Amino acid sequence: MIEFISQQIRDFTDIAVVGLSGGVDSTVVATLCTLALGKENVHGIHMPYNVDDVKSFNSRSVSLAEKLGINSHMVSIGLIADAINDTVFAAISGDNDDPLSTLNKGNARSRARMTTLYGISSHLNEKLKKRVRVIGTGNLSEDYIGYDTKGGDALCDLFPIGELFKSEVYQFAEVFRDMGLIDEKHIDRVPSAGLWSGQTDESELGHTYNEMEPVIKGLMNQYTMKLSDPLVKFVMDRHQNNKHKHEAPPVLKIRQFCE
To answer: What is the DSSP letter of 82?
Structure first.
């Protein structure tokens, strides 16, 4: 499978731009891109919001980039994300308006990161005259329940691991570790979207990916599921409410009125 994925990446792009969060998903994607394209053709972008990110998530991502030998770029997105939030609040605020929610402000970080990745991708494309693409790090477990940000990490040019469950992503990481490509310290065992301080996927969702995986598989295979089961209902509701994040925007069929 590794060679199949590598060939698909080679067919798609010459140079990969990957946001490195320090999480297992970006670790696996960066490693796959390195195997497919060569270390000189992979750009790992570290995008901390604050000093805490630099010391935690991005300390691990910088170590990964050094281990893989890829191009490594540190870009702070703190001012960008804060400017987005300040601008949004100023546009909709009134005397009695509540402040933006933690989730809303956190999503600005994700969108600031994706804007940065596409800016870098465009610059490299113009400079090198090669196919440069933003490579996404989403996996099937996250995507099915819509645990990502529209216009943020839900956006990219290619999702190499978009059909892998989180458990399978860890299996890939462990294979790469055993091959000596990465170290155990590069495999983050506590997933976090890094949208605010102390945030973890499990604490926000209330369920682990291992708990949700059998339910997702059952729903995908159209097995009969007990709707009275709170976990089944949680996964179904998340999927239905968030699937728009992974669909192309609908185009209204109005051409008939223009003829």
So the answer is: H
